[in-house]
UniProtKB/TrEMBL annotation:
It catalyses: (1S,2R)-1-C-(indol-3-yl)glycerol 3-phosphate + L-serine = D-glyceraldehyde 3-phosphate + L-tryptophan + H2O. Pathway: Amino-acid biosynthesis; L-tryptophan biosynthesis; L-tryptophan from chorismate: step 5/5. This is tryptophan synthase. One of its GO terms (cellular component) is chloroplast. It comes from Oryza brachyantha (malo sina). One of its GO terms (molecular function) is tryptophan synthase activity. Its EC number is 4.2.1.20.
Length: 110
């Protein structure tokens, strides 16, 4: 996580408007091969949602730009929406981009 923390600081120092930080998931089936491979590497190195939140709690006070999490709905549901939201807020997260939803037309026609 220290490499990620340093990357966040560097991006912020370069004037980044918003940082979208991906949280790895064991089943990123809706993503392409690049994100799938990066998720597999991160998980193999021990990255977890709790670890990302802990790192962000330390780093976000140093940043001038907002951090948005790129995550998946499965881990959020497992944690509980209220618990996830509280942890994200405590970690200084300003938003979340969540994957794994079917397009609305598929939901209506299912």
């Amino acid at each position: 996580m220290e490499t990620t923390a340093e990357a966040l600081r560097l991006l912020d120092a370069c004037g980044t408007d918003v940082i979208e930080l991906g949280v790895p998931f064991s089943d990123p089936y809706t993503d392409g091969p690049v994100i799938q491979a990066s998720a597999a590497r991160a998980l193999a190195a021990g990255a977890t949602l709790d670890g990302v939140m802990s790192m962000l709690k330390e780093v976000t006070p140093e940043l001038s730009c907002p951090v948005v999490l790129f995550s998946y709905f499965g881990p959020i549901v497992r944690r509980g929406l209220a618990n996830f939201t509280a942890a994200a807020k405590e970690a200084g997260v300003q938003g979340s981009n969540n994957n794994q939803f079917k397009p609305s037309s598929q939901l209506i026609n299912s």
